[in-house]
Design goal:
- The complex is a heterodimer.
- Chain A is of the alpha/beta class.
- Chain A has a single domain, classed as Rossmann fold (3-Layer(aba) Sandwich), CATH 3.40.50.300.
- In chain A, 35% of the residues lie in helices and 24% in strands.
- In chain A, the strands form two sheets. Chain A has a seven-stranded mixed beta sheet with strand order 5-6-7-3-8-9-10, sandwiched between helices. A three-stranded antiparallel beta sheet of chain A has the order 2-1-4, covered by helices on one side.
- In chain A, helix 6 packs across helix 7 and helix 7 runs parallel beside helix 8.
- Chain B is mostly helical.
- Chain B has a single domain, classed as MetI-like (MetI-like fold).
- Helices cover 82% and strands 0% of the residues of chain B.
- Chain B contains ten helices and no strands.
- In chain B, helix 4 packs across helix 6, helix 6 crosses helix 8 and helix 8 runs antiparallel to helix 10.
- The radius of gyration of chain B is 24 Å and the shape is globular.
- Classes of the chains: A alpha/beta, B mainly alpha.
- Chains A and B meet through helix 3, strand 5 and helix 5 of A and helix 7, helix 8 and helix 10 of B.
- The complex binds adenosine-5'-triphosphate (ATP) and magnesium ion.
- The site of magnesium ion has 4 residues of chain A, from helix 2.
């Protein structure tokens, strides 16, 4: 990993506070009857890798949608660098380009090329005229190509997205998010459907980009193993509640909520939860 | 068969009989009229080939009218459909636009043609205006329906980057619905050629003007030449648009199919 690029990009964060995201007692629902999240508290340190795991339907995707302002909570407060995420709010709208969001379905545009998809990440930096005529400045195209290389997709820039493999599509989605020059990366189950080797390739890539760009990554995972492997902290969600917050320190798993616990105990706990 | 179904069928049959009586639909008259048809057909067989160049020229005018009408109508429809799509606008924007479009659609093209003949006088221009209005009413509806079926995932993902609405339309909505829009454009052109062929009936230009006049003076042989040219043209256009559809549209839709699991 190249340290020099890290220094260049991290100068900003030196003056900001340590906590980048804070959620206090968050309750939310889709149809105002059943609460999907029930009193979530969490705080995420700048520059760390934070993972969220839990069973299907436990509310993981909902949690990410609250962080990028696509959804609003019914109760509680969320602050991202002191701003309440709400995509209809002018102040937050201006900072949305600093949050890269990769939805569970990736949200790529299938019948345009890889390069065109990646360049979409630069749209907030374009003038009205440039974006109307699809005239991307040369330095943006160079930046896109640089990122293309970073995600190991060089040579595929003119492929239509529908022709790519699942792993390649995920790389395009990551590249589009990185093109935003984000400070936060939200990724929803980006490696869940991949085989072991490809999943690790993708996770390594994100870890690398994270160090280069001083990103805070918040990633939803299906698999606790991979979450523990890459994340500084892992929040375990069950039925809309955070039941655990754990991390790996050295060889042991540490429970940040109730004190130390053995790896076996936690693994057992988790596997009980995820039994269908 | 439930008793309820029997009652329903009974009602439909009764309505059919009453309606037929009201509109003087008499099958015996139809059968009595068959020999007349034979006479017309027989007259039509006396085609007069020297009218073919005139007929082709008139058809060419018709195609040009349909072409201008379709392209201009389509160009006006596109921004209107962006405003009428529910997934892009609030109720206060799309509801009035939809009401306006519904009002435009209540007129068939021949009524628009009469209206424009009164406004701008006899001739092809009135016909072109009629086709534009009809295309706007019809194509905008097709377009906003296509836009509303766009997958919401790419829209949400791109929206969360913090792009403007114009950027969203330019970079997601149009590419994602392009194949539908192109197929609608072809369909509308095809349909407008048929429509324009009859606008001459009210003096709004095109080949229909000749057909109606020859029929009025019982010159079926001459009318037949013009009708034959319409028939051949429509068949050719039909064939060409099927080819275009196969080559460009089906292919790109296949691509989309592969990606949506
Ligand atoms: N658009 C929606 N409308 C209504 N209910 C929804 C909607 N989206 C999600 N839900 C409900 O909210 C709950 C949490 O959903 P969410 O998508 O956050 O779960 P998840 O943990 O991401 O699950 P998965 O692992 O399957 O992706 C589920 O019970 C789901 O049925
Ligand atoms: Mg989910």
């Amino acid at each position: 990993m190249k340290k020099n690029s890290m220094i260049k990009n991290s100068s900003f964060s030196l003056i900001s506070t340590k906590k980048i995201i804070q959620m206090n007692n968050i309750w939310t629902s889709y149809d105002s009857k059943i609460f999907v999240l029930k009193g979530i508290n969490l705080s995420i340190d700048r520059g760390t890798n934070y993972a969220i795991v839990g069973q299907s339907g436990s509310g993981k995707s909902t949690l990410l949608k609250l962080m990028n302002g696509m959804m609003l909570s019914s109760k509680g407060t969320i602050k991202i660098d002191y701003v309440m995420p709400d995509m209809n709010d002018k102040k937050f709208k201006k900072m949305m380009h600093t949050i890269g969001y990769i939805p569970q379905s990736l949200g790529l545009i299938k019948n345009i090329t890889v390069l065109e998809n990646i360049l979409i990440g630069a749209l907030p930096r374009l003038s009205k005229i440039q974006s109307f005529f699809k005239r991307f400045p040369e330095h943006e195209i160079q930046e896109a190509k640089r990122i293309l290389k970073l995600v190991a997709l060089s040579g595929k820039e003119n492929r239509k997205v529908y022709m790519l493999s699942g792993g390649e599509k995920r790389r395009v989605a990551i590249a589009r998010a990185l093109m935003q020059k984000p400070t936060i990366l939200l990724a929803d189950e980006i490696v869940s459907e991949l085989d072991h080797v490809t999943a690790h390739e993708i996770m390594d890539l994100i870890a690398d980009a994270q160090k280069r760009m001083n990103l805070t990554a918040i990633m939803v995972h299906h698999d606790l193993q991979i979450a523990l492997e890459y994340a500084d902290r892992v929040a375990v969600i069950k039925e809309g509640k955070k039941i655990l917050e754990i991390g790996v320190e050295g060889e042991t798993i540490v429970d940040f909520q109730t004190g130390d616990m053995s790896a076996e105990e936690i693994m057992e706990m988790y596997s009980d939860d995820s039994q269908k | 068969m439930t008793p309820k179904n029997n009652i329903l069928i009974g009602i439909i049959v009764a309505l059919l009989v009453v309606a037929s009586y009201n509109v003087d639909a008499n099958p015996i008259e139809f059968i009595d009229g068959l020999p007349n048809l034979a006479i017309v057909v027989e007259e039509m067989l006396h085609v007069e080939p020297k009218y073919i160049p005139t007929a082709i020229w008139a058809m060419f005018e018709t195609i040009q009218m349909a072409f201008i009408g379709t392209i201009v109508g389509f160009a006006i429809s596109l921004p209107l459909s962006m405003l009428a799509a529910r997934n892009l606008n609030s109720k206060y924007v799309y509801a009035p636009i939809r009401a306006l479009l519904a009002a435009i659609r209540t007129f068939p093209s021949i009524l628009w043609a009469i209206l424009f003949v009164i406004m701008v006088g006899l001739g092809p221009f009135a016909g072109v205006l009629a086709i534009i209005m009809y295309t706007i009413g019809f194509v905008t509806k097709l377009q906003y329906e296509a836009i509303e079926t766009i997958d919401s995932d790419p829209m949400d993902a791109v929206n969360s980057i913090g792009v403007s609405k114009w950027q969203l339309i330019r970079y997601v909505v149009i590419p994602e619905s392009a194949s539908h829009l192109l197929s609608q454009l072809l369909y509308m052109f095809d349909y407008n050629i048929r429509q324009t062929s009859i606008l001459g009936l009210v003096g709004a230009g095109g080949i229909g003007f000749y057909i109606i006049n020859y029929i009025k003076f019982f010159e079926y042989g001459k009318a037949a030449v013009f009708m034959l040219v319409v028939l051949v043209t429509v068949l050719i256009i039909d064939w060409v648009s099927v080819k275009i559809r196969d080559k460009y549209i089906i292919k790109s839709q296949h691509g989309m199919e592969v990606t949506t699991k």
